[in-house]
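Input.
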Amino acid sequence: MGLEALAMDQKGYRRGSFQSSTSDEDMLEIAGASLDFSMADDDPPLDREMGGFSSYNGGGMNGTSTMMDFLEEPLPGVGTYEDFNTIDWVREKSRDRDRHREITSRSKESTWALIHSVSDAFSGWLLMLLIGLLAGSLAGLIDISAHWMTDLKEGVCLAGFWFNHEHCCWKSNTTFTDRDKCPEWESWSQLILGHGEGAFAYILNYFMYVIWALLFSLLAVLLVKGFAPYACGSGIPEIKTILSGFIIRGYLGKWTLIIKTITLVLAVSSGLSLGKEGPLVHVACCCGNILCHLFTKYRKNEAKRREVLSAAAAAGVSVAFGAPIGGVLFSLEEVSYYFPLKTLWRSFFAALVAAFTLRSINPFGNSRLVLFYVEFHMPWHLLELVPFILLGIFGGLWGAFFIRSNIAWCRRRKTTKLGKYPVLEVFVVTAITAILAFPNEYTRMSTSELISELFNDCGILDSSKLCEYVNDFNSTKGDDLPDRAAGPGVYTAMWQLALALIMKVFITIFTFGMKVPSGLFIPSMAVGAIAGRLLGVAVEQLAYYHHDWAIFSGWCSQGADCITPGLYAMVGAAACLGGVTRMTVSLVVIMFELTGGLEYIVPLMAAAMTSKWVADAIGREGIYDAHIRLNGYPFLEAKEEFSHKTLAMDVMRPRRNDPPLTVITQDSMTVEDVETIINETTYSGYPVVVSRESQRLVGFVLRRDLIISIENARKKQDGIVSTSVIYFTDHSPPLPPSSPSMLKLRSILDLSPFTVTDQTPMEIVVDIFRKLGLRQCLVTHNGKLLGIITKKDVLKHIAQLANQDPDSILFN
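Output.
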């Protein structure tokens, strides 16, 4: 059974030639073709191909002078996909196999063909190398720029305005404890007023902080709105949809890449509660999509291109977290729809190259790939699993609360006037964030620095308030400090962190989904890290003051270093990130790659699994799946089981009271009849039958192919008029000698559309759609055509059975 059938509700795929010379941003205008988004599958823009099949050879086989082969050359636009349509996975893979067979057979004929065969095989690895280099370079540029611009809100370096605070003070002779107060770095009050003390200096610094934050965020939202609307948000829900076979032209184009890179720096620097990790995946996928144009086999094949995008997503996470293996697992677990073994190896290579490139740039000056790399020295005790599981429960509750609240807010944004004022929304949220953030040092610093501080294991030289313990140096053994009583600095830090937690929990709900690039990994980790650090300090003080309790005796004696609050922060960060995204395996691997702590895998696994169970008990969807559903992307979730006992006849259209299915007969309709059908319906394709009476199926023809073929025949073939008969058979039907020229369109007919019988269980139909990447299949009964099932119909049926609004399944 061929999978060549095209969904009636989908607008896109053209049979025939497959070569596309058009770029991602271009879209062919087809007369009379209205976009029907209902069948949209979310795939990033991949280029269309025009070329190669002898598809459109109209013209007669009877040798009469009134017939001609008017499509000697493949027509532009034939055999390509339109915007907001699903690709035909089976056909794309089949085309690639044919291409590969041809190259292999030719390689035995000449040396040049053999070289071409080797270069074709090597091109995939070369493409991965280029993606890794470009993604790593852009990530380094983003890290360095964001670090500098974040510090710019607080002051400027006199030795060179391009230095951030830390780099500015590297050559300073200040002591370790005063390393942040070097003379080369001046706050805005010192620069303008000449001194940094007093109420007026504080107000001036406060004012400059808010002004810079507003400037950065407004510049970001204006650039997104003016040049690349697709550059907003995280990008991961759209990339998931694109990887499942959907096309969104321009989503992975060059303008999106340029604007997303610039605005990501601005958004992160503005101090908004967002991260750069999700958008870095989008940036890496843009790199992959653009570099695909250099290689014919990826430029001309949408399925092959999606394999590249899966690997690019892995490279994006690799540079976001400095976690190459975590990146590969993230692409496999969270993003990819089709992930063959070959893609796994190439993802591994792309992630390796990207991480190596970022390490060579060394954006943080500490030879690490991330700002919050940390190493713990003390092992954890079995009894500590109890607080770790409590953190997992907190992460699950926070994840479920965040998803519900954020989706409710985003729905309000879509359905009310709020969505019409994106610039005003960004302005207000930034203003509130900056005004609330400045007085608290833990919200004033960048979120990455905050996480770094929370993960930190207090040493002798640490001057942070979180490490202001009452020291008793008589009991110090080597580098390990014993558990100590908390000093006033620790208690102050606890209050500030509690306030920071409340602010982060609520402000992130309103920030994620605004019209600026916004990732969710860092804010989620920050919420968990604050909660974890608070719990860790509480357990540490409990063990210090009550070391004789039964739960502590035997493993936490007085003067021992047994509780590591930084480890609790790390476990809390993993729990909250897991609660929001529902990642498990990739999350644990990313976290231990971040921290270099292999012995902490069990606490991380316990917290991640607990948070997933708790969050799943409240709501099954992770944040990305929830946004896919909110936006109405036609994404058929492969992880969900279909357990209902419906049949194909219950889902197909037309339904019992609907008008009959729109069909074209194989040899009895005129050009005018077909044009009338095209103008009166919005379907993407039409079944072709022997006759209206018999309804015996012949094949399936695409709307766009019909439009292009008829338009070209009118221009290039003499005698084609409105009364000319169109036929899809090998031989022309017998007509009176006086009748006008006939138009043969057999070459654009798909003779092997996928069909099922009306009694096929829907669970099998859903499985076929998922595993073969179908866009539609035709339903027959005893060989007669009954109806059609499109991907949109399947999604609507699933939504209906889940008591959701079936009309929400269209591209909003």
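DSSP finds 27 helices and eleven strands in the chain.
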